[in-house]
Amino acid sequence: MSVVSAITVTVPATTANLGPGFDCIGAALKLYNEFKFTRQEGGLSIHVTGTEAERVQTDESNLLYQAFVKFYQYIEQTPPTVKIEIKLGVPLARGLGSSATAIVGGLVAANQLEGATLSQSQVMELAIAMEGHPDNVVPALLGGCRLAATSGAAWEICDVPWHQNIVPVIAIPNFELSTSEARGVLPTEVSRADAIFNTAHLGLLLRGLETGNGQWLKTALQDKLHQPYRKALIPGYDVLNIAAVSAGAYGMVISGAGPTLLALTDKLHSEAVEAAMLAAWQEEGITAEVRSLSLDTQGAKSF
Ligand SMILES: Nc1ncnc2c1ncn2[C@@H]1O[C@H](COP(=O)(O)OP(=O)(O)OP(=O)(O)O)[C@@H](O)[C@H]1O
Ligand SMILES: N[C@@H](CCO)C(=O)O
């Protein structure tokens, strides 16, 4: 492929962890950020539109631009000066992988501008190194639900089948929670009992997602590694959990590092689960947006 003058990349939101899969599993959702890079003479310019556009940095500290520069550092070239246009569809710092869209978007855009110099797995390795964990960037790049594991060298990526009847319902509150703050409350060591608990529940989750077995999913969505520590950062967590399950959800978990909450349900109950979660947060005095989404299967796309 040849070097091009402009490229547009769309990258899906992602929901990481899915309860027991802390830092190793995530799914791409049909909700997108769009990034356009155009080579230009002169300095860097960044224009942002969409919800909370004013919250995104428009100088060299912008994460999307940092990922763009990282690509050129990797191939040992000087980055071209560019105009960047960002259309935000993924809410910032809400647990829906906004930072992963920026990292994947910057790397994919640079790679496409340079005629696809790197393979998709090289781009993926760079993205994981930048984010520090694979569970958002991998599905953001590849689409679908993905499990990532490494023994220290390369990453092994596994496609996790997702039964067509399982609907993700996301409840996004009107407050932010940064990933660094939500990681800061976690213990550095866990007990053997909690490690065994999560190992068993992640195994059950994989089979539950594949088969749509509601009984398995109900048990599988439990976690002991991160949610017990993080739920205090999310007002109304317990009330929403009860409301979602009473309305027919298999269970409710924290999406990524939060504060968005994710319920998994079936097509029959998704509207009732949406209404119950919205009402529960309203009763707590919190404004939220609640939506049923479907899985993105394509990941980052460029054109
Ligand atoms: N479109 C974007 N362009 C540039 N920077 C972005 C963009 N989206 C997010 N960021 C950066 O990422 C930060 C949010 O990252 P953070 O990891 O805290 O949340 P998140 O990725 O939305 O949530 P999670 O990792 O839990 O899914 C923002 O404050 C901003 O600095
Ligand atoms: N696995 C990560 C996802 C958010 O980046 C966490 O829960 O901290």
UniProtKB/TrEMBL annotation:
InterPro entries for this protein: GHMP_kinase_C_dom, GHMP_kinase_C_sf, GHMP_kinase_N_dom, GHMP_knse_ATP-bd_CS, Homoserine_kinase, Ribosomal_Su5_D2-typ_SF, Ribsml_uS5_D2-typ_fold_subgr
Subcellular localization: Cytoplasm
Domain GHMP kinase N-terminal stretches: 62-144
Annotated GO biological process: threonine biosynthetic process
Main location: cytoplasm
Reactions accelerated catalytically: L-homoserine + ATP = O-phospho-L-homoserine + ADP + H(+)
Highest taxon, organism lineage: Bacteria
Binding site for ATP: P91, L92, A93, R94, G95, L96, G97, S98, S99, A100, T101
Pathway: Amino-acid biosynthesis; L-threonine biosynthesis; L-threonine from L-aspartate: step 4/5
Domain GHMP kinase C-terminal: 206-281
Record's keyword terms, sorted: Amino-acid biosynthesis, ATP-binding, Cytoplasm, Kinase, Nucleotide-binding, Threonine biosynthesis, Transferase
EC number(s) from the headed UniProt entry: 2.7.1.39
One MF annotation (Gene Ontology) recorded for this entry: homoserine kinase activity
This protein's GO CC annotations: cytoplasm
Family: Belongs to the GHMP kinase family. Homoserine kinase subfamily.
Function: Catalyzes the ATP-dependent phosphorylation of L-homoserine to L-homoserine phosphate.
Official protein name in the record: Homoserine kinase
